[in-house]
Amino acid sequence: MKDNEFRDWSSKAAEWGADYRARLRDLPVRAQTKPGDIAAQLEPSPPEAGQPMEAIFADFERIVVPGMTHWQHPRFFAYFPANAAPASVVAEYLVTAMAAQCMLWQTSPAATEMETRVVDWLRQALGLPNRFTGVIQDSASSATLNAVLVMRERALGWKGNIDGLPGQPKLRIYCSGEVHTSIDRAIWVSGIGQDNLVRIPVQGEKRSMDVGALDAAIRSDRDAGYLPAGIIASVGGTSVGGTDDVAGVVEVARRHGLYVHVDAAWAGSAMICPEFRHLWAGVDGADSVVFNPHKWLGAQFDCSVQFIANPGELVRTLAIQPEFLKTHGADGIINYSEWSVPLGRRFRALKLWFLLRAYGLEHLRGMIRNHVAWSRKVASRLAAEPGFEIVTPPMLSLFSFRHLPAAGSDSDAHNYELVRRINDDGRIYLTQTRVDGKVAIRFQAGQFDMREEDADTAFEVIRGIAAELSG
Ligand code: PLP
């Protein structure tokens, strides 16, 4: 690209983005391509000579866009949302243009100081006490890994990083079976080992871990010579929204001197609405909490906020200061790279600052309340429809259901086929999960631009395609 073309192509990209958002409703939500379709259109070797931007841009529209699943589509009801509200996209254009590395205060003072401020805005917005400070991580997986590393180091008297794990007592971490797989990964990566992640049985409609069983497991592990290190509580588990009794978990942890990390990656955004905060009652006593503004709130991926009661412990676990990273003569500053595993950091605070200022908390609360109400409406319409069963009731805006197959047919195969047909149809996008071993279909409402009519369309599509499937 010639230097003088940068302005033009930047404007074209922004124009394209606005047009793309405007026509999203007319596109199939999930990509309708087959495996290999896109790869077959990409040159096998890199070009030796530069090519005109016109050609590259035309290929982007011709090859790439049809191979995209549209995560910003208002009828995206799969997984969890990854909302990128327009104001946060604008902020990301600016971040991309400046392309700063924000690892140390001095490498981008504005990024550091804004990060401290917007994380505290979010703390206030979520109703968390000021014993929490925080940091923006790339993902909840990273935040949870950090929490597990602190659990490990705290339990081992800060010797794990130095001596390694062989020869140390075997650590134990506790959680329910409803947690996201990022918890499993954190346990592997931290060297604690999958067998030392103890799954506590869940109970009740909220699928919360049985705190009595948690207490008993910790005691029996201690008696058997293990070293319990921490507990990971789930608020809004990925599969069907499993939510622990955080107050009960914190009480057990206090009794045993254990660290508590709360994973509210998805559901945390809903805590800007005071009426939903009962779902994480007791969170004030946790050691760390993660939530992803890049899911429901509208901050473009990646943007995961980790609130921490004692950041000194995290810094003690992760910080390393070779001479080339020392910031001499700058007292009272924060170098956020000491709060995370990667050294390099993007300027993630700017999109939060734009998002919160452009929409305001009141608008964001309204959006979340609508999603919860519309999801409940779809659930109650499906519940009233012959041939459907609600498997797990709405937890905020997430519920799961099944369509009942003809007598003698396999329910799992039937519901897989229903999801496949719905997604091939393209008007909505859904994904499946397993509840107590049986396939169920997840429905979550959460798109930034979703309207009530999109929920109505979802109901009609599900009902219509299920009827066709049953003949
Ligand atoms: N925790 C929960 C409850 C999630 O649903 C997810 C992702 O969907 C994660 C953690 C992992 O999030 P991330 O992709 O930010 O690592």
From TrEMBL:
<dbReference type="InterPro" id="IPR015424">
    <property type="entry name" value="PyrdxlP-dep_Trfase"/>
</dbReference>
<dbReference type="InterPro" id="IPR015421">
    <property type="entry name" value="PyrdxlP-dep_Trfase_major"/>
</dbReference>
<dbReference type="GO" id="GO:0016831">
    <property type="term" value="F:carboxy-lyase activity"/>
</dbReference>
<feature type="modified residue" description="N6-(pyridoxal phosphate)lysine">
    <location>
        <position position="295"/>
    </location>
</feature>
<keyword id="KW-0663">Pyridoxal phosphate</keyword>
<keyword id="KW-0210">Decarboxylase</keyword>
<dbReference type="InterPro" id="IPR015422">
    <property type="entry name" value="PyrdxlP-dep_Trfase_small"/>
</dbReference>
<keyword id="KW-0456">Lyase</keyword>
<comment type="similarity">
    <text>Belongs to the group II decarboxylase family.</text>
</comment>
<dbReference type="GO" id="GO:0005737">
    <property type="term" value="C:cytoplasm"/>
</dbReference>
<dbReference type="InterPro" id="IPR002129">
    <property type="entry name" value="PyrdxlP-dep_de-COase"/>
</dbReference>
<dbReference type="InterPro" id="IPR010977">
    <property type="entry name" value="Aromatic_deC"/>
</dbReference>
<dbReference type="GO" id="GO:0019752">
    <property type="term" value="P:carboxylic acid metabolic process"/>
</dbReference>
<dbReference type="GO" id="GO:0030170">
    <property type="term" value="F:pyridoxal phosphate binding"/>
</dbReference>
<dbReference type="Pfam" id="PF00282">
    <property type="entry name" value="Pyridoxal_deC"/>
</dbReference>
<dbReference type="GO" id="GO:0006520">
    <property type="term" value="P:amino acid metabolic process"/>
</dbReference>
<protein>
    <submittedName>
        <fullName>Aromatic-L-amino-acid decarboxylase</fullName>
    </submittedName>
</protein>
